[in-house]
Design the sequence.
């Protein structure tokens, strides 16, 4: 079982169960977690599923690939721990992952 | 510009569903004009995922977003639809009598259309520029914050701050450089998604000290009465400083907003347009909504659903466009009349 915790900037916290093989974005949509729009449906083409990965998780989650890094140019308030959640695949290693959604996606 | 364009049908949105509507209407001798806010044909397929494979189009084991658009364009070629690209329909007004609908549409480019039916195939709404979440940015919009450049001369002699790393940002750096007093490009990293030759041209200008490049992100604006005085920038090393400027041009790509559709007097449900499932007509007779923009019990946002909806909407549209003609259902495989329209008989 993999559990992911989503924080928002208003102080809201949701912990949900995620299916290995899905993505952090898909998990949020399926569970109705607010703050992630995913306009393009996971094609890495819109930068509206931007999240900040908690500092203790950045190394395990890893860095964005080139296409994602480019697409992050269209996100706002990008930080070194910014990722597009459609590009983070859920694995057993991510059990306990904590991410924060930004104040605005688009 | 002020001549009214009179036609049978206006289709709002030139995505895959709007394109297929041209085909279904065309088989029924209904002429169509298409209007789209994007400067290109194809909607989300062309804008968001031109290279992505789609696996659930009937008859195509796999096709890319651009591939399906190109195929549809070939398919609708016999019907000679007219495209109006880079224009947003701002107004859709009913001017006809009950039972004989007539609609007047106006675009932001100043064109006026009169049509017997209007078909909204606007997908997720209109693609509009993303607005950065900077406090009070709306107070400067239109005066010194611009999301598009309409007249280059508007920036003559001005200090212009351009934000972003894509083609729009780099193109406007290069195009405004000859007229602006000083161009400053702000980007969050020293790498760009824009075309390499634009990036090289920009770097050359920076090397010759003819413009400035600043690593960082704009976090605040200063000015009065809509006129900017400076933008506050958080630099790469987290230092915060003010950069004097007259204009700010942020280029963060596009996002989908429902846009003017909300103002057309149609019933709406959660930013979607409810329709019946027999004709895909809205609460206003003669206005249809097909594809991702509509909703009905069991709706699936699939391209294949939109194709079906286009076919049924066209049947009803025929009744409005040709009230005295009886519609005879025919197959393209066997009907000589349909094959003539397709240019194959």
Sequence:
């Amino acid at each position: 079982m993999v559990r992911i915790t989503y924080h928002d900037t208003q102080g809201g916290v949701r912990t949900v169960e995620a299916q290995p093989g899905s993505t952090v974005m898909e998990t949020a949509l399926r569970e109705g977690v607010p703050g992630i729009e995913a306009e393009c449906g996971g094609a890495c083409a819109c930068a509206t599923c931007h999240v900040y990965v908690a500092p203790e998780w950045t190394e395990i989650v890893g860095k964005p690939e080139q296409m994602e890094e480019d697409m992050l140019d269209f996100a706002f308030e990008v930080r070194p721990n910014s990722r597009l959640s459609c590009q983070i695949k859920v694995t057993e290693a991510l059990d306990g992952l904590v991410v924060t959604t930004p104040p605005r996606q688009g | 510009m002020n001549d009214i364009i009179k036609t049978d049908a206006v289709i709002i949105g030139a995505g895959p569903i709007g394109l297929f509507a041209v085909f279904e209407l065309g088989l029924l001798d209904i002429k169509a004009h298409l209007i789209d806010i994007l400067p290109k044909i194809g909607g989300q397929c062309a804008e968001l995922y031109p290279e992505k494979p789609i696996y659930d189009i009937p008859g195509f084991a796999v096709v890319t977003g651009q591939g399906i658009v190109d195929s549809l364009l070939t398919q609708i070629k016999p019907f000679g639809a007219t495209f109006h690209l880079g224009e947003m329909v701002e107004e859709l007004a009913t001017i006809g009598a009950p039972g004989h609908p007539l609609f007047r549409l106006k675009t932001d480019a100043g064109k006026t259309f009169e049509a017997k039916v209007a078909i909204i195939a606007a997908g997720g709404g209109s693609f509009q520029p993303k607005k950065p979440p900077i406090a009070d940015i709306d107070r400067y919009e239109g005066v010194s914050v611009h999301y598009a450049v309409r007249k280059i001369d508007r920036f003559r002699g001005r200090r212009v701050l351009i934000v972003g790393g894509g083609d729009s940002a780099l193109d406007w750096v290069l195009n405004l450089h000859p007229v602006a007093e000083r161009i400053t490009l702000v980007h969050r990293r020293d790498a760009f998604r824009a075309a390499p030759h634009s990036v090289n041209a920009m770097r050359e200008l920076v090397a010759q000290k003819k413009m400035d490049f600043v690593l960082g992100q704009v976090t605040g604006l200063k000015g009065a009465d809509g006129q900017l005085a400076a933008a506050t920038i958080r630099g790469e090393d987290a230092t915060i400083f003010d950069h004097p400027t007259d204009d700010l041009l942020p280029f963060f790509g596009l996002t989908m907003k429902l846009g003017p559709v909300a103002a057309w007097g149609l019933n709406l449900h959660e930013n979607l347009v409810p329709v019946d499932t027999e004709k895909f007509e809205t609460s206003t007779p003669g206005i249809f909504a097909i594809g991702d923009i509509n909703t009905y019990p069991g709706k699936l946002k699939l391209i294949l659903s939109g194709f079906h909806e286009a076919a049924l909407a066209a049947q009803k549209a025929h009744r409005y466009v040709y009230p005295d003609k009886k519609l005879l259902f025919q197959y393209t495989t066997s009907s000589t009349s349909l094959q003539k329209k397709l240019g194959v008989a």
Notes: The CA atoms of residues 31 and 54 of chain A lie 20 Å apart.
